[in-house]
Amino acid sequence: MILSINEVKNGNLSLGSFVGLNAIIIQLSMPLNFLGTVYREIRQALVDLEALFKIFAQEIEVKEKKNAINLMINKCDITFENVHFFYKSQKPVLNNFSLKISRGENVAIVGQTGSGKSTIGRLLFRFYDPVKGRIMIDGQLLTNVTLKSIQQNIGIVPQDTVLFNDTILHNIQYGNPQASESQIQSAIKSACIDDFINSLPDGYHTIVGERGLKLSGGEKQRIGIARTILKDAPILLLDEATSSLDYTTEKNILSNLKKEKNNSSMIIISHRLSAITDIDKIIFLKSGTIIEEGTHSDLMNAKGEYFNLWKNQEVDDLI
Length: 319
Ligand SMILES: Nc1ncnc2c1ncn2[C@@H]1O[C@H](COP(=O)(O)OP(=O)(O)O)[C@@H](O)[C@H]1O
Ligand SMILES: [Mg+2]
Prior knowledge:
With 319 residues, the protein is of the alpha/beta class. The chain has two domains: 2-57; 78-318, P-loop containing nucleotide triphosphate hydrolases (Rossmann fold). The protein is 43% helix and 18% strand. The protein is built from eleven helices and ten strands. It has helices spanning 2-9, 15-57, 117-124, 147-153, 168-173, 181-190, 194-199, 217-231, 247-260, 296-302, 305-318; strands at 78-86, 92-101, 106-111, 132-137, 140-141, 154-157, 235-239, 265-269, 281-286, 289-294. The strands form two sheets. Strands 6-7-8-3-9-10 form a six-stranded mixed beta sheet, sandwiched between helices. A four-stranded antiparallel beta sheet has the order 2-1-4-5, covered by helices on one side. The chain binds adenosine-5'-diphosphate (ADP) and magnesium ion. Adenosine-5'-diphosphate binds at residues 87, 89, 93, 111, 113-119.
């Protein structure tokens, strides 16, 4: 530009040519600038692509049989038969674990952290296969049926609920995208989250933030529960799903579930004993083995580990 200014001064270049030159320089430099951005984007995309291929190359631990059939739920009986299991570390997690749950029965699993409670859920969902022993639903071995049909028939509320950065409605609907408005409303009611949603200015159109960071632990858990209720699966598994809730809300949700899902089999994993006193069967797990089992009063009368834990928690509650 400086050179051409001199030329204009000397009368060798017209003012029009000067303006034209300026336009040409802009036209040239802008795309060059942009080229830098494109180069960066392409580099990033290649890195992402590599990460994606790494994920694709991961070997799936659980393989579906070639002739696998769909799981047919009839009575909804769940059987764990002498199941032994360990993760890659080879440290035994489940040891000769046997459990039978019949239709409509509710079973609670209690025990210390690390005793293998969540592992039972993972095995039932067939994230892993047992090292020894068998797991069956209505007499069908989990290893013989398709993974999709297992996932369709079990509703899990995991220990930590995963929420999408979208509206509360979308997060609940994820359980069953075809659900009607009244079904959604009733799931919200059963999960005792209706008051909270109504108190929000945008109601259930409120965005929950990345991984639900704009909600409290208890609110996230109840959205997870509503989502699972909406899924309406014949088998329900709550893995410490009410751990962040107060005692009354926890009790209310469990009794709602019992009423509505009286045809489903329900497994409740909990470390708070006060919430599960009226469950049909309570199992006390220690290092992957059942050491006590029965109703609340059976276990209290036995004066064993359950009794001790109960006494400890009673004292905690008083404090
Ligand atoms: N993916 C994993 N890989 C290796 N070890 C695991 C894995 N998940 C859990 N464990 C171990 O298995 C044991 C049981 O875990 P878990 O079933 O989650 O216990 P909890 O009763 O607290 O739910 C723990 O000792 C834990 O460290
Ligand atoms: Mg757990």
